[in-house]
TrEMBL record:
This is Transcriptional regulator, Crp/Fnr family. InterPro entries: cNMP-bd_dom (IPR000595), cNMP-bd_dom_sf (IPR018490), Env_Response_Regulators (IPR050397), HTH_CRP (IPR012318), RmlC-like_jellyroll (IPR014710), WH-like_DNA-bd_sf (IPR036388), WH_DNA-bd_sf (IPR036390). Residues 149-222 form the HTH crp-type domain. GO terms for cellular component: cytosol. Residues 14-118 form the Cyclic nucleotide-binding domain. One of its GO terms (molecular function) is DNA binding. It comes from Trichlorobacter lovleyi (strain ATCC BAA-1151 / DSM 17278 / SZ) (Geobacter lovleyi). It comes from the Bacteria. Keywords: DNA-binding, Transcription, Transcription regulation.
Amino acid sequence: MHDSKLWYLKRMDIFSGLTPDEYAVIDRGSRSLSLKKRALLPYRGTAGDAVYFIKYGRIKVIRTSPDGRALILDILGAGTLLGELVREPAGDDEGVTAEAMEETLLCMMQRDNFDHLMELVPKLSTRITKLCGLRLKRVQNRLVDMLYCSVEVRLARALLNLAEEFGVSLPDGMLIDLRLTHNELAGLIASTRETVSAMLMELHKRGLLEFRRHRILLVQPMKLAAIAGR
C-alpha cells in the first residue's frame, strides 16, 4: 500500500490543482499517523493544536454522556477533516473522542503550519471552509431530527445519508460500503440497539433493504426516502 503523504493528498479533492511549491509546504509541515481499528484519537485538547486529514479509512466521532451512553456525531471517510474546524456545533469537546472504524491513515498538521498554509493558499481555505460548513449543517440537521422525528424516520434518514456518503451502486440496489453494527446505528440516531435491530428486520421484511456481509443494501431507496419524508 502506498504510504507517501503527497500521493494521498493529491488525490483528495480539496488539495487538487495545487502548485509543486504549495504541495511542498504541506509535505514539510505535516506527518503521517496510522491508526489500527478501534484505536482512539483524543479529541479534546488536540482540536486546537492540530488538524487531521483522512487519507484512507473511516473514523467515527463519538460523544459519551455522563451516564456512559455513546452518541456518534459523525462518520468520516477519506478526503475529510478532523480537528478544530470540525468541532461539535456547540463548540464543547468535553467527552468527545475519535475512533478508527478500520485501519486508517491520517495526515496531521500542527495548527501553526495549517494557519500558514491557509494564508499561502486562499483557494484551499475556501474549499475547507465550504467542506466544514456542509458537515456542520449535516450534524445540526441530525440533532434536530433527534428532537422532533420518530426513530423510524431517523433511521431511514441515517441510512440514506450513509448511502450518499459511502454508497456503491449495484444492479440490485445501493450498498452502504461501511461495516456498521446495530449498536453503532443506534448511536447515530440516539436510539437503542434493540430498537434499531427490530426496525431493520421490519424494513427487511418489507423488501426495502437486505444484509450483505455486515453491510446494508438499500433495495428500495425511494420507498425509504418516503419514510424519511424526502
